[in-house]
Amino acid sequence: MANVIALYPGTFDPLTLGHEDIVRRSAKLVDTLIVSVAVAHHKKTLFSLEERMDMTRETLKDCPNVRVESFTGLVSEFAVSRGVSVMIRGVRSMTDFDYEFQLAGMNHRLAPGVDTIFLNTTDVFQCISSTLVREIATLGGEVAQFVSPHIHKQILEKLKAK
């Protein structure tokens, strides 16, 4: 079997336990998994690109076949440039699936050699999204149950500084 390189792209602002679950499960299925952190020019992020990459690397440092890289532009072009044959997408709901299915079709048209695999989110993580974590934390709510401890600490420090 060929060396399978997979890509799990996202903004990861911040990386949640749901993202972490998808990464850890995906890493068991492929030889190399690239967690690609989007520059995200179109979004106002809480954390800078470097902060998001550092938090992601710290969280996944125990996964030897996972590497963290940033990208800008089309994810399909980034995937091809890294020799990726599989893109991983996590889905929490049918709404997620509908959107991700459209993206998968377009990405396949742009990069025919890259297939998309959908992994359903483990049930305990289905309600978690980075957007909700940021919103709850910004409004003073407790988000420790949704992120790794060191990311929780970073969120608290970031909000205290604001």
Question: Could you characterize what this model shows?
Answer:
The chain is built from six helices and five strands, in the order E-H-E-H-E-H-E-H-E-H-H. The chain has 162 residues and is of the alpha/beta class. It has one domain: 3-Layer(aba) Sandwich (Rossmann fold). The chain has a five-stranded parallel sheet, with helices on both faces.
Question: Can you summarize this structure?
Answer:
The protein is an alpha/beta fold. The chain has helices spanning 17-27, 49-59, 75-81, 94-110, 130-138, 149-161; strands at residues 5-10, 32-38, 66-71, 86-91, 115-120. Strand 1 (5-10), helix 1 and strand 2 form a beta-alpha-beta unit.
Could you give a short account of the major beta sheet? Answer: 5 strands, parallel
* Percent range of helical residues: 40-55%
Shape annotation:
globular
Total strands: 5
Topology order in helix (H) and strand (E) letters? EHEHEHEHEHH
Quote the beta fraction: 15-25%
Tell me the distance between the termini. Answer: 50 Å
How many domains in all? 1
Distinct helical segment count: 6
- Broad structural category: alpha/beta
CATH superfamily: HUPs
CATH architecture: 3-Layer(aba) Sandwich
